[in-house]
Design a protein that fits this description.
The protein has 5 helices and 7 strands; from the N terminus they run H-E-E-E-H-H-E-E-E-E-H-H. It starts with a helix and ends in a 5-residue tail after the last helix. It has a 3-stranded antiparallel beta sheet with strand order 1-2-7. With 167 residues, it is an alpha+beta fold. It has 2 domains: 3-58 and 125-162, no CATH class; 61-123, no CATH class.
């Protein structure tokens, strides 16, 4: 393959990847509107062959320090050995993980679950996950070769053509 042919392939793959990424974002949004978190839909080709499933996963819970001073003051008071000009990253991750999972810090001495100042837990938006069967790429490729998927992916290129982006 010549450098010119390789460059053309790369350019085409880049353009298609960008279009598919935008289309995936729109499909993810539509999925969030249509499914409830936890819903799972089996994916089958028109031939009836199962190629995977789509699930609307719960949003991820994330704990993060929102008030560094308050967090450092709490660590200094309760765990001063964990300070090294700042809270050790390993301990910070431990605290954030426990706050995210348990709703606070479990004081091992008292057994009390305490609020950690300066830390908040947020839950992201639900998001679709796609799990393919091991043979899905092969089955989808065959369906594509039979012309069965044109209506599913043809609209990815259509908006670019209609907008005059293709000449």
């Amino acid at each position: 393959m010549s450098a010119r042919e390789l460059a053309l392939r790369l350019a085409v793959h880049k353009a298609l990847t960008d279009l598919l990424k935008a289309a995936r974002g729109q499909l993810d949004e539509e999925t969030r509107r249509e499914l409830e978190p936890g819903d799972r839909v089996t994916v089958k080709l028109s031939s009836g062959e199962r190629v995977g499933s789509v699930t609307l996963a719960q949003g991820r819970a994330t704990a993060r320090v929102v008030d560094e001073r308050a967090f450092i003051a709490w660590v200094a008071e309760h765990y001063p050995h964990e300070l090294v000009q700042a809270v050790r990253e390993s301990f910070k991750r431990t605290v954030l993980d426990m706050v995210r999972n348990e709703g606070g810090w479990l004081d091992r001495e008292t057994g009390e679950l305490v609020e950690v100042p300066g830390v908040e837990v947020t839950v992201g938006d639900p998001y679709p996950t796609v799990r393919l069967t091991p043979d899905a790429p092969k089955l989808i490729a065959r369906a594509w070769q039979r012309g069965e998927l044109a209506e599913l992916v043809g609209d990815v290129l259509q908006p670019a053509i209609e907008a005059g982006e293709a000449s």
